[in-house]
Structure to design on (404 residues):
């Protein structure tokens, strides 16, 4: 199978194992998730596989009911179609810069479905699929990338933190949130799952965040999607470490790695149990064969003008049809047939089309609102800026600020 066939199987089936692992452990404990570079070794060497390329069973099948399997399949179909439409909107000039996530659906959907209601998701700018699973609306996601800050206001109860665009800046945030929760809670508390890419492991925020998490034993899961490239910088030029997973060792925690085309098992070990019963130390789940995903992102770092590549020389990953191994397995089990697959596809297309219509029909926010959400209480400097801006609008009108 080509490495680029990485949508439904980019951790797709192993995403199901994440759900099963969550159920077995019951509670999370903080763990650092690392990855292995496919540029260094055979990505499947020593890795657990459940399905082969044709959807045949080659490993232990987790005990998940048909509805859960179909929902994972539906969520991945939704994420891929949403991503394709968003890229199209960008190319048409109907939406601004957009970071594609095709090829990471399995890793994102599986990990998000493994979270409990009291867990928090702290995303980078590419976790569209995981955010949708957690309850972030399609319309809100579109509005955010159309430049409307209201799209970055997740609904109450979704426990999705604001999107972080500066690389790795969300990692200290995740550690701080988990530490604060631990200080405030004497009983059970949720886990704080932080997503980032391999490029983030080259930033100081990565090391600082993981160091504090290790020192203060915070209930974090750090989830690295290693797509092998930090914009135009390949994995082997980012670090001399043999693996990215090694980078956690100085923090006193344990990491793990796995490939993403055939299998991944995010380390979701008990972190959500009572502080009074939680053992000290850095012990994670008893299963030492767990790992973090190494999917291949099938698209660019973000949408740029057509023909302007991020990656130079060899190693460019082309977009191809998503690998249908999960669909093939579900068909072989009698869970899916042509009619149901077509119905899911139609519902996904309708949902995304409706969201696009709603997003484009939404009235633009009042420009004056940009001064309202920086601080809980407006500072004197912001008040002065707001007054100056209001005066400019009154004298010149809003048309003077339009950018063609």
């Amino acid at each position: 199978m080509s490495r680029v066939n990485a949508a439904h199987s980019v951790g797709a089936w192993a995403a199901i194992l994440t759900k099963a692992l969550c159920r077995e452990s019951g509670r999370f404990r903080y763990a650092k998730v690392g990855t292995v570079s496919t540029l260094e070794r055979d990505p499947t060497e020593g890795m657990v596989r459940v399905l082969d390329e044709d959807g045949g069973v080659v490993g232990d099948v987790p005990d998940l009911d048909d509805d859960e399997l179909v929902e994972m399949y539906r969520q991945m179909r939704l994420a891929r179609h949403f991503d394709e439409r968003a890229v199209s909107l960008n190319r048409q000039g109907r939406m601004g810069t957009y970071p594609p996530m095709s090829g990471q659906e399995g890793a994102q959907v599986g990990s998000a479905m493994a979270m409990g209601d009291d867990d928090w998701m702290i995303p980078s700018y590419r976790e569209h699929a995981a955010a949708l699973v957690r309850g972030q609306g399609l319309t809100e996601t579109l509005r955010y990338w159309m430049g409307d800050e209201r799209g970055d206001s997740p609904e109450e109860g979704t426990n999705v933190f604001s999107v972080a665009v500066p690389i790795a800046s969300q990692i200290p945030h995740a550690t701080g949130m988990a530490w604060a929760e631990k200080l405030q809670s004497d009983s059970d508390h949720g886990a704080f799952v932080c997503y980032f890419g391999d490029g983030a492991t080259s930033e100081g925020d990565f090391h600082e965040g993981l160091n504090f998490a290790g020192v203060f034993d915070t209930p974090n899961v750090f989830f690295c999607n290693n797509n092998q490239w930090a914009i135009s910088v390949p994995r082997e030029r980012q670090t001399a470490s043999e693996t990215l997973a090694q980078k956690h060792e100085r923090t006193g925690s344990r990491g793990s790695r796995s490939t993403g085309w055939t299998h991944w098992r995010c380390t979701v070990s008990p972190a959500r149990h009572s502080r009074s019963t939680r053992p000290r130390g850095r012990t994670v789940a008893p299963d030492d064969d767990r790992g973090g995903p190494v999917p291949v992102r099938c698209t660019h770092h973000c949408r740029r003008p057509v023909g302007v590549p991020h990656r130079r020389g060899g190693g460019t990953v082309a977009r191809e049809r998503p690998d249908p191994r999960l669909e093939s397995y579900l068909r072989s089990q009698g869970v899916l047939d042509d009619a149901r697959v077509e119905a899911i596809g139609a519902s996904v297309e309708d949902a995304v089309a409706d969201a696009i219509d709603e997003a484009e029909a939404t009235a633009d926010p009042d420009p004056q609102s940009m001064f309202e959400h920086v601080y809980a209480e407006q500072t004197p400097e912001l008040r002065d800026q707001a007054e100056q801006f209001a005066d400019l609008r009154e004298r010149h009108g809003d048309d003077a600020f339009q950018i063609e």
Residues 1-41, 258-298, 305-309, 312-320 have pLDDT under 50 and may be disordered.
